[in-house]
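ok so dumb question maybe but i'm new to this and my supervisor (M.) told me to 'just get the structure for Phosphatase' and walked off. so i did the thing. is this what she meant?? sequence i used:
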Amino acid sequence: MNRFAAAERALRRAAPHRLLDAVRQALREHYGAHAVELFLADYGMTVLQPVSGPPHAPEPQSVHNTPAGRAFGAQQPFVEDARKDPVRVHLPVTVRGDRLGVLTVTLPGGEHLTDRLPELAEIAEVLGHEVIVAERDTDLYLQVRRKDRLTLAAEMQWQLLPGRSCSRPEYDLGAQLEPAYAIFGDNFDWSGTADRLLLYVTNGMGEGIEASLLTNLAVNALRNARRAGLSLADQAALADQAVYAHYRGRRYLSVLMFDFELATGRARVVDAGSPQLLRLRAGTVERVTFDAQLPLGMFEETDYVAQEFHVEPGDRLVFVSDGVYAVASPGGEAYGDTALTRAIQATRLLPAAEVPRAILRELTGHRGTSVPDDDAMVVCLDWRGR
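this is what came out, is it supposed to look like this??
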């Protein structure tokens, strides 16, 4: 058995809470590693938190100005100084485009380091898959990701999300919520098949646990309809009925829904509320509007109609909630289209997974305070097509 296969087998056989121990032992035995540490990105995507516990836990690493953060941002292995012996290598831990963290390995230096990097990068990818599976059976990795305590509403919202980024040959997706540790109503969801991408951007009404409960009901109703094979308009109608049946119009929820054909770029759209879409095409940013329909749950048995939309290779679509475009500066100026256009232009060279966090940093500067008054959500879709 070769050394990569041995490391992979060790990870697959490890107990859910012992993945770091397993990869540490495998890398020491088969690659001569002196030290191995796993860092996971926190909910705010600002810090890489160590999985190792006291008394030997390393310090958290910033995603902005550290070697580990450089590997996380670039999604490429980063070698601190190949001339040193031993040498530290930082490997992104990513699953199908969803950025989980970084595996840091201290190895003997020498001319064979470059030859080992592809295998080590694959081991980091296998580790990421095992972390995702292990989260069904242990809270360890979910606990590591939080540098502060989550509110109950935020706990419910993060458990509802599909991930924070996703990559396929036809598209890249990235998304982020703010305040990460106290979010309550905003949400995003996506699902890909061999031929389609379904994307939902949700802006829940209210605050705290009530907003989270409303969003959970609506998102699960949409998933139930989607998994039953219903059309986009029928998904909206079923979720509308579910929300109205429970709240009788006292609470309702805005959602922007897309069903993309991967082969053609054609899409069906249902616009049921306030999330907004801006498109960057050939260097120009413009707002895209659709026929507005009633939010889910406002009235009984609302009929929804899907309309046509087309996306071209090279397009970047940026979706924002009202907690972004309606935010006021200390002087009372709304963030709005002008500031959003500037932010989208300024981040045009970043990958989709980095764009939401960058725009939300711009929003914090506009707002003038670090703590927002409302949920803020940004979703970025880069379309390549086939």
